[in-house]
Structures are given as C-alpha cells and as structure tokens.
Amino acid sequence: MNLILASLAVLLAGSTLCLLVPPGGKRAGILGPAIAVLGSVLGIVPALDAMVGAATWQASLPWVIPAGSLAVGMDALSGFFAFVILTVSALAAVYGHAYLSRTGTARRVSASWFMFNVLVGSMLLVVVARNAVLFLLAWELMSLASFFLVMFDGEKREVRRAGWIYLAATHFGTAFLLVLFGLLGIRSGTFDFSGFSALRPEPVFAGAAFILAVIGFGTKAGLVPLHVWLPEAHPAAPSHVSAVMSGVMIKTGIYGLLRFSTFLGAPMPWWGWTLMGAGVLSGLLGILSALAQRDMKRLLAFSSVENMGIVAMGLGFGFLGISRGSFALAFLGFAGALMHVFNHAVFKSLLFMGAGSVLHAAGTVQLDRLGGLSKSMPVTACAFMVGAAAICGLPPLNGFLGEFLLYRASLGAIAGSGAFAGMEGAGLVLLVSLAMVGGLAVACFTKVMGVVFLGEPRDGTAAQAHECPMAMRLPMMVLAAICLLAGISAVLLPGFVEPAVRCVVSGPDAVALAALSLPEGVFSWTAGAGATVLLAAAALYLLRNALLSRRRVDSAVTWDCGYAAPASRMQYTSSSFSAPIVRQFHAVVRTDTTATRLSGLFPSGASFSSEARDVWREHFYAPLFKLFTAMSARARGLQHGRLNLYILYIVLALVALLAWKLR
Amino acid sequence: MTAFHAVAMLSGLVLAPLLPGVINRTKAAFAGRSGQPVLQLYHDLIKLLRKGAVYSRTTTWVFRAAPAAGLACVSGALAFMPAASAPALASFGGDIVLVVYFLGLMRFLTVLSALDTGSSFEGMGASREVQFSALAEPALFVAVATLARVSGSESFAGLFAGLTPAAWMAYGPAFMVVLTVLFLVFLVENARIPVDDPNTHLELTMIHEVMILDYSGPDLAFVLYAASLKLWLLGAVIVNLAMSAAGVTGSLAFVGFLAAMMLLAIVVGVVESTMARLSLLKVPRMLVGAVALALLAFALAGRLSP
Amino acid sequence: MMPLVDSVHVLILVTCLLLLGSSRLGACIRTVAIQGIVAGGVLPWVSSLHISMQLLFTGVFVMALKGIVFPVLLSRAMREASASREMSPFVGYGTSLMAGVLFFLASLWLGAKLPTPDGVSGLAVPTACMMVSTGLFLIIARRLAVTQVIGYIVVENGIYALGLAVAHDIPVLVELGAMLDAFVAVFVMGIAIFHINREFDHMDSGRLNVLKG
C-alpha cells in the first residue's frame, strides 16, 4: 500500500519538478523519464502482489476533496491494470528519453515530461480510486494530460485538429460518466465504491447504468462507433506517448467498464449481446480501416480499435455466460479478454515504438515512401516483426494466448451445447469474428512489415535511414522478449489473470466460480508445442546452413520474369497490396482514388493515389454535428452584443429566482 | 505415448510427397500423356537438398529463415492430426485452433519472404494469398465447429472419434455439406485449380508458386516439402471425416485411410483436368459461398437431432 | 431420422445458395432446373410413405415442366436477349450469400414456430421458406428480367414444397399445385419475354448502323 502511494506521490508531485528545470535543457530530458521510471518501478511490485491475489487493501486517506473522499484501494483487478500501466509506461519513458531529445522541438521537452508523468500518475490513480469523485478527477486529469501530450507538435495544423477532436470526444464520454456516477451516487447516498457495491439495483436502473457505462467507457476504449477520435489523436502524439495512449490508456476504459459492472448486479443477456455487437463491429471495421491506411501510425491506431473490439467480444461473451449461468464459459471469455488487454499493451506499444523509430530514422511514416529498412535498422525490424506476428495472434507469441482462450470459449459453447444451452449462437459469432479478424490482421501486418522493412527503399530518405540509439532499441527489445517469453512460458499465465477475473464475477456466484479454473495443462500444451516448433525451426535452419556451407551460394537480382533491371519503384506498394481486400469490403471501407490517365503513343507521366475515408465521420458524425450547429444557431439570437439587454437578462433571472424562492 | 502414437505423423511425413505425384499422374492420364513418375517429388527434393543456392541481393534473413520455420510449423500442426485408427501424436482440447494458427504462422512467413524479394510479382501473389486465406479461415473454422458441435470435442482426435456411423445417419446431410466446404478450403489453401494453377508459368496469374519464385536449393526443397505436408494435413481432415462414416476400426482403418488419401489425390487430379481456373475476381465469391455453406451446415447440425 | 429426405432438403438449400451466388445466367438456369426436378419430383416421392400412381404422374409432369420446358424457354430468352450474365446486380453476390444464410436462419425460426405434421421432416417447412425468400430476393435484387423469372420459379417451387409439407398426402392439392405451375409458367414466361424484349430492343445490333454519320 505504501509503495503504491509512494509511486503516486513520485509521479504526481515529481512531475512538477520537471517544470523547475530549464524547459529546453538536457536536464529536463533526463529528470522526466527518471521520475517516470522510479515511480513505475515503485508501483510495479505491489501491483504484481495484488494481481496474483496476494495483497488486497483499501484505505481512506484523511484529506477531503469536495463531495468525495480520498478512498483508494487495490484488488486483483486494479493490480492487473496497474501492472500493465506501469510496465509499459516505464519502458515508454526510457524510449521517450531518446526520442524527444532527437526530434526538433526541444523547447517544450520539460512541459511534455511534466504531462507524461501526470498521465502515468493519473492512470494509476484511476485504477486505485475507490471513490467516484476521485475517479472522475483522475479520469479528467488523464484526459487533459494526454490532450496536452497530443498537442506537443501543436504548430502543425493537423495535430491541432486531432487534439481538438480528442478533447471533444473525451468530454463527450465523460459527460455520460457524470450522469452514471450521479445516478449511482443518488441511489446509494455516497460516492464511495463500497457504497456502490452495496447497491442491489433493479433491472431497469442497472440496464440504464450499463448503457451509460458502455458509452462513457467505450469512448475511451475506442469502440465503434465511438472511435473517431482514436485514429486522429494517437498518430498525432509523439511516438512514446502514442505507445502509452494506445497501449494502456484506452485500457482504462475496459477497467472502468469491468469495475462498474460489478456494481450493477447480475448481468442480463442483452448486456452481453450489446458488448459483443460493439466488439464485432469494432474488430471488423477497425482492421479493415487499418488495411486501407497509408500512414503507419494511423494504421496502428485503427488496429487498436480492432483489438479493443476483440476485448469487447470477450467481455460480452463473459457477461452473456454469467447471465445464462455458464460460469465456465464466462470465465474463459473474461480471462481471454483480460489476457488480450495485457498482450495488446505489450505489442501495440512495441509497434508504436517501432513506428517512432522509423519516423526518427527515415523522417516519414508514409508506407509508400518506405521500404528495405531491415538492412539499415535490423534490431528495430526484428522487434517489429515479433510485434507484428504477436498482434496477428500467431503462436508461439503472447497474442495467441488471449485469442486461444476466446476460441476455447466459443468452441466450448459449441461443443458442449447440451451443457451450455443458448450459448451456441454467441459461440458461433465469436468464432467467425475471431477467424475473420485474425485473417485480416495477418493481411494488415504482413503489409506493414513487408512494405516498411523488407524489399528495397522506395524513396531517397528511406535509403539513408539509420538504426536508432540504444535507449530506443532497448525498450523494444524488452517488449519483444516479453512477447516471446509470455508465449512459450504460458504455464504461468492462468494465475496471472485468474484473480482479476474472480473480482468481476463475484458475489453469490463466487462459490460456483471457485470450483472452476482453466483446464489443467492446456497452456502447457500450447507453450510446449510453440517451443517445440521454435526449436524445430532452429534445427532446420542449422541444417540448411550445414547443407549450404560446402556449396556455392550466389547472389543476383530478384527474378522478375526475365526483366533484368527491376527498380524499387516497381515494387508492390501498401495500397496495391491491400487494394483487393479493400475493394471487396467497399461497403464499409471507402477509398478515394485520383489518377491521371495515360495518353498518347509515348505517355510521359501518370499518377495514382488513393486515400482512405472515414465512413463514420462522414456519414454519421458530420450530419449529426451539422444538426447540432443548426440547432444552436437558433439560440444565437440571444447573443446580440447589446449591453442593456444583457442587463435585462440578469434582472429577469434575478427576479425569477426571487419569485421561485418566495413562492 | 508409445511408438504407436507416432504412426499417423510419420506416415504423413513420409508419404506426403506422394500426393502431388498421384495428382500429376492423374492429370497426365487425362491429357493422354504418361507423365512424371509418381515419386518425382522425392527425386526433386533429394536433388534440391544437394544443390547450392542463389539469393537475391534484396533479401534479408527473413527470406532465408522462412522456409525452415514454415516447415517446422506445418510439421508441428501435423502432430495433432490422427489418421483414422492411428492416433495423433499429441492432442488436447482446443488443438484445432493451434493447428489452424500454425498454418497461419507459416503463411505469415511465406508472405513476408515474398515481400522480402521486392518483386512486384511476388507482392501480387502475397496480396492474393492473404486475401483468400482471410476468407478460407472462417470457412474452415465453421466447418470444423459443425463437427465439434456434433461430436462434443474440441480436439481433432476427439472430433473424429466422436463421429460414428450412427452420427452419420442423423447428421449425414450436414456432414456432406461440411465435406464440400472442407474440399473447397483444401483446394484454396493448397493453391490448386480452380483457384490457382500450380503448373502455370505465367507469374501474373499465380498465387503460391509466384511467392516462392526466388527460392532455390535446400530452401526450395523445404518449401516444396512443406507444401506437400500441408496438402496431406488438410486432406487428412477430409479423409478422416469421410472414414468416420464407414466405422471400420483397427489396422484396416489405417490402410483404408492411406488408400483414401490417394483417392483424394486422384479426385484432385480429376478436378484439375476437367475444370478451368476461376477468374481471380471470382475466388472471393466462391469463398464467401464456402462460408455460407459452412454456416448452413452448422445450422443444420443444430436442427437435425438424432 | 430421415437421412434420405433430409439429404434432398439439403440439396435444395444448396441450390438456393448457388442461385444467390452465381452471376452466370446459364448456371442459374441449370441450377433452377435441378431445383425444380428435386423439389417438384423427387421430394414428393421420397417424403411420402406410399407411392400412388397419381403422385408418380404429377411428379413426372412437374419434373418435365421444370426440368426441361422451363430451362429451354429460359435459355431461348437468354439467347434472344444476348445476355449471358448479370452484369451489375443491385446487391453484390457476397452480400447475397450472407443474406441467404440469414434467410435460412429466419426460416429455421419460422419452421420451429409453425406446426409440422407428424411424419414430415423438420426441414420441410424451413426449406420451403428458404426457397420462397430466395426467390423473392432474386426478384428484388437482380437487374435482368431472366434472373427475375428465375426468382419467380424459385418462389413457386417453394410454395409447392410448402404445400407438400403442410398438406401432406393430399394428392388433389398437389395436383392442383402442378396445374397452377403450368399456368404460371405460360403466364410468367409470356410477360417475362415481353419484358426482355422491351429491355433489350435498344441493344439490337442490326440498328447500330443507324449511328453511322
């Protein structure tokens, strides 16, 4: 407990230290990450303790905040999320130390680190808060800190635009949370979570609260159709901030959803279907939109939407399982979702760091201008490839484990249809969506990996790329190692998420749940098979080397149908790679293409370009906001700039108040 | 685990290169030629393993490591596949997912190695491969889930053990649809006609063959061997399902399995001789059709109760 | 339960999906011929417990009508209109197939709601509903008149099968259905060919030389 508080104190109080040193100097660039790392390391140990279910505590600190109390606590669920937040943040801070010092804008470095530390501290506070007002305070702090971090390159027009979209969206979500907390507070008479969990709300109230929670927290998690801010804001931020935002900050939405669902009593089937529907929508639209992107960071942001979709599918399946009394399936659904939360945090931050390194080395993240970077930046390429394989859910990496649990849940619902009546439909939906999303993810990430790191450079800047410094390579290597080790030492992992799942499925059902756990040895099978295949691959590779060692090995140009002078511009580009799939799903992903046609017998020049359009923004939000603008235009009549009439308003308001009070 | 458990996997490892030979002989018979020897692929593999190699200067370690890793993946997947009465080397609840994902990893590596050459032809093949497999994978999963729904098991070994002639009596129509879907997936995943032509030498029209254009020597041997193992693996799913209808047991069933695998190869040869390749734009439609059929079978399996 | 009957039903369901997924008119005509033979002739034979002369003859009549007469007429219409494939349907083929799956799920649900007489396969009503909905979908979602006629025929097959399922072993009704078939055939084909002519008269290649300046 003391360590967590110390960690909070270091992060939040220490962040102000960043403001005391000269804003552009070297000291800011060292002090900032040092504080972040120190604070994170302090917190990781107790978080890990709580995560495995060893230490649970709750405390109310003697200070007061208006209308709330400074109640904090830690249980396995909080511990799980705190562990994820702190691990990734510490590595991102190390990465950011080198990243920020090398990207032009030196003057705001200290302010940026101040905000970074506030962000990490407030995320930690969100997961340990045990009072709604404190939670909301931390939530708002988190949103504002990340907003300012996004605005780091605020002199660029598109960054400012992204920042404002983010600010509007996050407050849209918070508005729903305010209503939710208000409802719960009025109902229970207190804003403490302990009071909330004593509530036994009736179905209508619980359903309304659930919808509010899904909208409020779903906005933060980036679920479709509340995702529009995510692909704007995440790419605009500096890469280490993108890593934290996409890797962990959006997970606080999942945490909030889980935490508040425990206050609402037994879930109803439609809760599960709602979440699963949002999950399927996010998963498919997210990955399809990602495929259509040409900007590496934007692509990664859309892939976050997809992964949050997978998590939401798991949660939905879990809620459905509880409501139908199939606790074993519910357990698998929640466990898969939580494991995917952890895995996504690891590989998505890894991939964003990789994108940051590419930006740093080649000066652009436009996919069609890159290529062949694995020769100049081998470590980044290798780490990125591990992350890419992991995000596709391929064994033997960590991404497979979460998806495997979800597949197990769906197959369990299908194969055990007698035992789990009414779950086959949900199982089938989960199965088809996972398979579809998984296949498209392979398409998406082979595209990124292939177009950016393999082949020949498509552009002069890409040809002159260089490997990034050690401080940037190290966090990526650590994250890649976690991907691999978590995958092949999967024996440990059930203990990892099990206590957290028990926090969600608690109450009278705990007895039923206590009898359940993951089928013995399943993970040792997947891990064993993964490790065996890895060893076999290594052995075969050595065999190949041995075979070739005594023979002639030549090098030549790539075989291009007998064409002896292939140029790098002839390579398949990212747009051409994904075009068939995007065209096939043109109903949901639109691309604009502009082309100049060839003409004449000896055509001189031609061009072609395609740009993905955001269907939701154009066809859903734009008309909606136009409506709002039209409605508020009517109210503009009140604002006319005449002082005497304004004073009339004031007088009228005062008189009305007086009349109402005296009535 | 006894030596007996290794029979299914070993038979696959040894006999898989026979399948392309049988297919080619069938096609040759249709064309009125005598054709290559049935053991041609074995000769090719031995020859390639003894050769040197030529690499494109564009390629990196990804290109060099992919064939070995791909072969390891498909062998790993093969360990979970029974052969009628011969049990799988390993089996656990959910190994279906692991098998499909090992094939996914192999595809991931093949596609990356194709992109590693920087050739636009190989990029084209890679693009088609990922597009088609993204649709073939759901079809395969739903087809297998239909079987799981009937047999109540989540592993390949339990799946086929749970399918008895009695189950065939009750769910026969659904199983016939599943067989159709599995055969379509088999053709797509193994790059056979009507989706891809393994014999064409026009790079623009190929999928799998074009992705491996730049391989030579031992690497090519690995790639070809892995492709034949994949043919065997997905063929075994079809044959195991079909064999479960007969209800034979013991060593007779294993012999029957091997014979049925050869029969499957002949069927593929007949299909390739009598059908034209589909236009590439139509392949996705065929795959969506396969998904639709699989969903139909799944719904039927719920409806047709014994 | 009834493997043979169920197999026939599944075959009909598969033909429905094929109709939804194929763009070639020739393939569609062949598929609808097979469906007509199976649904009109084979289905009554395999699903009735005792085969009467009446049933045999109506079956043969319907099979001849749907398996030979209709396809020949449709093929001729296709040739006259010189259109061998549906070029741009209102709803794409992939989407149509997925719609087909949804129709089947809805039909299953409907089949569970409607009472099925004893001795009739549980798939009989869903299959009939599937045919009706597929036919209606084809009429709505396709552009060419020939495909729309195919849609009419599929709807008719479905109604026939539905009558067979709920009015099981009432040969008079079955016979009436067959007579209605013949009527519909003449009627619909007359209209359809008129439509086809009207739609394609501007594509008459003999008139192209008028365009010469």
Write down the oligomeric state. heterotrimer
The value of Rg of chain A in angstroms is 26 Å
Structural class of chain C: mainly alpha
The low-confidence runs of chain C, each spanning 5 or more residues with pLDDT under 50, are 202-208
Helix content of chain C: over 70%
**Binned strand content of chain C:** under 5%
Gap between N and C termini of chain A, in Å? 53 Å
How many structural domains of chain C?
A: 1
Strand elements of chain A, count? 5
**Strand portion of chain A:** 5-15%
Distance between the termini of chain C: 72 Å
Structural class of chain A: mainly alpha
Instruction: Give a quick account of the main beta sheet of chain C: strands, pairing sense, barrel closure.
Output: none
Q: Would you kindly provide a written description of the structure presented here, covering whatever features stand out?
A:
The complex is a heterotrimer of chains A (663), B (306) and C (213). Chain A is mainly alpha-helical. Helix content of chain A is 71%, strand content 5%. A two-stranded antiparallel sheet of chain A has the order 1-2. In chain A, strands 4-5 form a two-stranded antiparallel sheet. The longest helix of chain A has 36 residues, at 327-362. Chain B has 306 residues and is mainly α. Chain B has one domain. Chain B has helices at 6-15, 18-31, 40-49, 61-78, 95-116, 120-151, 156-161, 165-189, 208-211, 217-246, 250-274, 283-303; one strand spanning 53-56. Chain C has one domain (3-199). Chain C is globular and about 45 Å long. Classes of the chains: A mainly alpha (663), B mainly alpha (306), C mainly alpha (213). Chains in contact: A-B, B-C. At the A-B interface, helix 16, helix 17, helix 18, helix 23 and strand 3 of A face strand 1, helix 4, helix 5, helix 6 and helix 10 of B. Strand 3 of chain A pairs parallel with strand 1 of chain B, so a sheet runs across the interface.
